[in-house]
Structure formats: structure tokens, C-alpha cells
Amino acid sequence: MNASKWRYALAEPTLGSEEALVAKEVVESGWLSMGPRTQAFEEAFAAKHGSAHAIAVANGTAALHLSLLALGIGPGDEVIQPSMTFAASANMTIAVGATPVFADIISPEEPTIDPEDIARRITPRTKAVIVMHYGGYPARMSELMALCKAKKLLLIEDACHGPAQRVPELGHRALGTFGVLGTFSFFANKNMTTGEGGMILSDDEGLATKLRLLRSHGMTSLSWDRHRGHANSYDVMVHGLNYRIDDLRSAIGLVQLEKLEQANSARRAVAKTYSRAIEEANLPDLTYVFGDRAEFGAAHIAAILTPASKRDDIRTVLRDERIQTSLHYPPIHSFTAFLDKGVEAGQLIDAGLPMTEEFASRVITLPIYSGLATEDASIIADTLIQAFEPEFA
Ligand SMILES: Cc1ncc(COP(=O)(O)O)c(C=O)c1O
Q1: What mean pLDDT is reported for the chain?
Q2: Which residue, 195, 245, 299, 302, could crosslink 366 as a Cys pair with Cβ 3.0–4.6 Å?
Q3: What is the pLDDT of residue 350?
Q4: Averaged over 85-94, what is the pLDDT?
């Protein structure tokens, strides 16, 4: 089915005339590559999250890659991380020559990494832990921070789902500021978007300097510095990459950042509409994930749990009503590139990740974006609940 035929798409960016205007201004300014808007975007993003440094990059995957490189993670190192996330963290672990070790989620109702399972998987080679705040709902940060401190492991937060999400019980600190580094994505489906784009947060000045070097070929100065006469030449200090963002995206990012809290609360309203409708329907087979924490997450993903045996039929009912659904996520350990030899792609293997596998077999993700009206979320919830009526069961 063509995306334009959906009555309710899974995700839609919310962009307006302000974004169009600043993009036009950048085009007219004659400076497109990384420059003054990127600096302003970094400063604003760092301030919004209460972090000392923000480094803007090409996308969230680049943010993870640079983080692993800056922390010196490489061949022989193991990085404990979730399988229930997007493939980027595991792919980037392999890209630096290290080994991803998957730890289970706590439960299908709380699909963030389980600190106890991490503890069981620590070996002398373990160097770091990557945590992902599924849907923008905080992972168990106090336990994770205590564990990483005790075991001298580097904690990296993949906060792609939770920009500007504060954690009341942890001093109102923002997601992405608990780890040594925190990474974000501004892909088109994210809570704030620049089309493609990403950010890394850090309080460590040395790491921030290293990240800036690695982002741009290891060079000591940027074109923008030379353009302003701040440098005549450059040296290459480390073997870097080109993971720069550009000023067009940064200008759009600045506008999106201003609207972020509003966008997050519009998403929360959708999440609350779904969770309330599902709670009132009181069906034993239907649960809204993190329904009890709707106030405390960035509502990037609207996930429900159904019995595995009914999932395809329920998705078909929704599809027939032109409501797009998805599965976040097929677990990484089931992808061809990550499979043990002799196991077919898509087949869930016994990787000692029972909660991840149960969640993966039961989850459906529903439309959620800041432009989705709560009236429309109610229509989607009603359609979903009707799909559980006996004639569909
Ligand atoms: C949890 C998570 N990590 C990393 C990424 C990678 O970000 P990007 O697509 O900007 O490379 C994404 C999303 O796309 C994501 O959802």
C-alpha cells in the first residue's frame, strides 16, 4: 500500500513555514556547510539538556560510531547492549571491530535493558554498555549507573527516542546526560527532525574535543574558521571521518528544538488517549506499553502487546482501515547479518533473550506524531479495540 493512501501514517514530521523560512535564509546567506547555525544549534541543544557540550553530526548512526571511536572501543572489546532496538548500535559496534553482546529487556511491559542480565554477561573484555530508552521512556538509570560505576564500564546512552525528556526521580536530568556520552537522531520520524541529523552530548571537554576532530577528518580547523580568517591552514590530528551536519539542517534543527517540548507533550496526549482507551476496554489480551508512565516519557513510539497468535490478524484489520502499523523492533539478533550459522533469517533463535523474543512476537506499534489529533488517536484506539471483538478473534 502506498504511504499516501494511509488515513493515518505511522509517523509524520511536523514542519511549518518557520522551518521553510530559515532554510531559505540559509540558502540566501551563501553559507551552506557547517558554520554559524550549527554552532548555535549545538549551544541551544546543550543548554536545553543541561549538558556542557553538544556535537552535531550527520545522523544518529554517526553519533554512535563517533562515540565508540572517541571512547577507544575496538577489536577485542565487548559492548553489552539491547537486541530490542534499531540496528545502528550493534552495526556501529561491529564497525569499530568490537563485539556486541546482547542483554535481555526487563519484561514485555518494560522493554528497556535489564541491569541484572547485563551483570550476568560481563566478562574481562566488557568495556561499555549501550542503553536505549525505548519510546523515550527512561531505562533504569540509577541501577545502570551504579552497575557501570562498580564494574568500571563506560555507559553510552542512545537517547534517540527521548530528546528533552527529563527524569523527575533523578534530579530532573535529561535523557542523554547520564552516560559518559548521549546520542540523538533527527531522522524524519523522530520527535524533532532535520531530515537526517544527529547530536552527541557530553560533559567531558576532552571527549568533546576528540569527537569534533573525529567528525571532520581529524582536522584542526573547519572551512568556516578559515573563511573567517581564524585559521590559515590545518593539521590532521587523528584518522577521522566526515560526519558533519550542514547549516541548512542546523537552522531547521534550531526551530524544531524550540518546538520540541510542545511536540513531546502533543505526543504524550496521543499516548494517553491510547492507554486510557485500552485500559477502559479492559481486554485481557491487550496492553499499552508504558501506559502507566505516559507522563514520564517522550512518547516516540506507541507500542501495544497482543497475543502473538492474533498479531497478524489485528494488523490486517488496522491496515484495512488504512491505519499504518509497524513492529519496533525485529530483534537485532534475528537479522541475517547477526545470525549464527545455519539459522534462517527472521527465525527467533534461542539467544538467551526470552523477554526480548516474547516482546518481539507480541508488539505492534501504532501511529504517533505531534500532528496527530487526540480525536484521531481515539478513532485508531476504537478500531484496534474492535479488532479484538469475537468475530475477528
Ligand atoms: C534507537 C535508535 N538508535 C539509532 C538510530 C539511528 O539514527 P539515524 O537514523 O539518524 O542514523 C535510530 C533511528 O533511526 C534509533 O531509533
Answers
A1: 94
A2: 302
A3: 56
A4: 97
- Phi first, then psi, for residue 325 (nearest 5°) are -130, 170
Closest by Cα among 331, 390, 328, 381 to 355 = 331
- Residue 341 annotated as catalytic: no
The model's pLDDT over 284-322, given as tens digits with 9 standing for 90+, comes to 999 999 999 988 999 999 999 999 999 999 999 999 999
Tens of pLDDT, residues 29-62: 999 999 999 999 999 999 999 999 999 999 999 9
Q: Which candidate, 160, 136, 159, 188, places its Cα nearest to that of 303?
A: 136
Distance CA 72, CA 109 (A): 35
Please give the backbone phi and psi of residue 353, each rounded to the nearest 5 degrees, phi first.
-125, 60
Where does ligand 1 bind, in terms of residues with CB under 6 Å? 59-61, 85-86, 88, 132, 158, 160-161, 185, 187, 198
Give DSSP secondary structure letters for 19-53.
HHHHHHHHHHHT--SSSHHHHHHHHHHHHHHT-SE
How far apart are the C-alpha atoms of 213 and 235, rounded to whole Å? 10
CATH number for 17-258 (one of 3.40.640.10, 3.40.50.720, 3.10.50.40, 3.40.50.1980): it is 3.40.640.10
Q: What is the mean pLDDT of residues 264-281?
A: 98
Q: Please say if the pLDDT value at position 393 is more than 60.
A: no
Domain extent listing, the chain: 17-258, 260-386
Q: Which three cell numbers stand for residue 336?
A: 541475517
In CATH, the architecture of 260-386 is: Alpha-Beta Complex (3.90)
